[in-house]
Design goal:
6 helices; two-stranded antiparallel ribbon; DNA Binding (I), subunit A
Length: 184
């Protein structure tokens, strides 16, 4: 495997760790990818105002072109895109439900920072049982202890697993029985 020494960090690395030259022939750049990215990021931080002005002027010029290209691609590949989306949603129902819930709550201006890993942890702590009736079910719902309509959020401290009947029965009221809330 061929290697090259990065001029910035002075470490021998494989050629795959270097960007290809865009102009002026074949070969790779003298800096490795990590050093190039770090240098570019530092420049953007140092020249923030200049970068923002450049970026602001760049996108609106191409906005309509990018939009049209996206529409054209969707029309040409509609069935393939729909199938890929459907397959993903069937394979990852929890991720899709969580993503939709978080998106809706953020749009409404509510705090929503629950992750899929946290949801899995919550279910494990409750042993995959409903927090209210203790029934084990294959499909637990995310139950807001303090309802959204009363200022609740989609956070680790406000979510417990509940079966559909308990979640529906509680509606937008506070819980009738005390519930163990996770305090991490």
């Amino acid at each position: 495997m061929e290697t090259k020494k990065c001029t910035a960090c002075q470490i021998d690395k494989p050629l795959s760790e270097f960007y290809q030259k865009h102009r002026g022939g074949e070969g790779v750049l003298s800096e490795c990818k990590n050093c190039t990215l770090a240098r570019n990021k530092a420049w953007r931080i140092r020249n923030r105002q200049q970068y923002l002005e450049w970026d602001r002027g760049r996108y609106p010029k191409r906005k309509e072109e990018v939009k049209q290209r996206g529409r054209k691609y969707y029309i040409e590949n509609r069935d393939k895109i729909r199938k890929r989306t459907s397959d993903y949603q069937k394979a990852n129902p929890d991720k899709c439900v969580l993503y939709t819930t978080k998106r809706n709550e953020i749009k409404r201006g509510l705090l929503a920072d629950l992750t899929l890993e946290q949801w899995e942890t919550i279910k494990a702590v409750f042993k995959n049982k409903c927090a209210y009736c203790g029934k084990r079910t294959s499909r637990l719902e995310k139950e807001h202890v303090i309802p959204l309509s009363k200022g609740g959020t989609l956070t680790l401290r406000n979510i417990v697993p509940a079966c559909r009947s308990c979640n529906s029965r509680k509606s937008n009221n506070l819980p009738e029985i005390p519930v163990k809330i996770l305090l991490f």
